[in-house]
């Protein structure tokens, strides 16, 4: 069996270079690859094109890479919780491609399934459709979207085994399984790493064939982006 286990995040991001396109799982701050992001910041790779549903917050998640000016372009669906992102976008320092959330998900899924492009009605008649081929299906206009092409995909799982099989917990599943399938090299960080064969096959969300590197992280913060509680 191919050995996929690496010692830590620093070893897991080996090979990342300036100018690469990289994916980051997560939704808000839920299920983000915290340790990989920290390692990339420390590594210093710059001019990155980052594909992620959002850009973290100012002092956590992808917000850390924005602080250190390591991101050249963000491809995202929602970016409303990051003041530094807003500042860089409005000043022209950061290139931004905002796309519908369903299109973001499908561009990930298509990449993992080997589908180079697809037509969708989402975004037709808006700035999203500018410069894209339009075709009619059943009397409704659709725009052509291409699958993502990312050198790395960084994902976070609750539990994994040494063969790279992954189980995600609750809503932390979000974009992680799709991105795990889409990267040329997929790096998974997990809270618990067990020997191969110990996970129930019926509970595995991402088969190990899609994962090239896996490591067990420690000390996860698991911040809550917007804490909402009911009155007593």
The overall strand count is 11
- Runs with pLDDT <50, length 5+? none
Looking at this structure, what is the CATH superfamily? Glutaconate Coenzyme A-transferase
By helix and strand content, what is the structural category? alpha/beta
Radius of gyration: 18 Å
CATH C-level class: Alpha Beta
Question: How is the CATH topology named?
Answer: Glutaconate Coenzyme A-transferase
Could you say how many structural domains there are in total? 1
Listing every helix as H and every strand as E from the N terminus to the C terminus, the arrangement reads HEHEHEHEHEEEEEHEE
Provide structural commentary.
The protein has one domain (9-114, 148-216): Glutaconate Coenzyme A-transferase. 21% of the residues lie in helices and 25% in strands. The protein has helices spanning 9-12, 34-43, 63-67, 83-91, 101-113, 176-182, and strands at residues 21-24, 48-51, 71-76, 95-98, 117-120, 134-137, 140-146, 152-161, 166-167, 185-194, 213-216. α5 crosses α6 (176-182). The protein is globular, with a radius of gyration of 18 Å. InterPro entries: 3-oxoacid_CoA-transf_A, CoA_trans_fam_I, CoA_transf_BS, NagB/RpiA_transferase-like. Belongs to the 3-oxoacid CoA-transferase subunit A family. Keywords: Transferase.
Secondary-structure map:
Layout (H helix, E strand, L loop, with lengths): L8 H4 L8 E4 L9 H10 L4 E4 L11 H5 L3 E6 L6 H9 L3 E4 L2 H13 L3 E4 L13 E4 L2 E7 L5 E10 L4 E2 L8 H7 L2 E10 L18 E4 L16
Parallel strand pairs: 1-2, 1-8, 2-3, 3-4, 8-10, 10-11
Antiparallel strand pairs: 5-7, 6-7, 8-9
Task: Give keywords.
232 residues, alpha/beta, Glutaconate Coenzyme A-transferase, 3-stranded antiparallel sheet, 6 helices, 11 strands, 25% strand, CoA_trans_fam_I, CoA_transf_BS, CoA transferase subunit A, 3-oxoacid_CoA-transf_A, CoA-transferase activity
């Amino acid at each position: 069996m191919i050995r996929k286990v690496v010692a830590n995040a620093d070893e897991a991001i080996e090979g990342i270079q300036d100018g690469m396109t990289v994916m980051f799982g997560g939704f808000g701050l839920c299920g983000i690859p915290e340790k990989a992001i920290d390692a990339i910041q420390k590594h210093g790779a710059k001019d990155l094109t980052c594909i992620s549903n959002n850009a973290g917050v100012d002092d956590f998640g992808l917000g850390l890479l924005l602080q250190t000016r390591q991101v050249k372009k963000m491809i995202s669906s929602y970016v409303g919780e990051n003041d530094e992102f807003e500042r860089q976008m409005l000043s022209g320092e950061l290139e931004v491609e905002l796309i519908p959330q369903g299109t973001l998900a499908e561009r990930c899924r298509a990449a993992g399934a080997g589908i180079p492009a697809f037509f969708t009605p989402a975004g037709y008649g808006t700035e999203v459709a500018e410069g894209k081929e339009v075709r009619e299906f059943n009397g409704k206009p659709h725009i052509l979207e291409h699958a993502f092409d990312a050198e790395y995909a960084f994902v976070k799982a609750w539990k994994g085994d040494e063969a790279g099989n992954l189980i995600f917990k609750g809503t932390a599943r979000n974009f992680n399984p799709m991105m795990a399938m889409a990267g040329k090299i997929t790096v998974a960080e997990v809270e618990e790493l067990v020997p191969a064969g110990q996970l129930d096959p019926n509970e595995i969300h991402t088969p190990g064939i899609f994962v090239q590197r896996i490591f067990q992280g420690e000390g996860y913060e698991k911040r809550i982006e917007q804490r909402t509680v009911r009155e007593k």
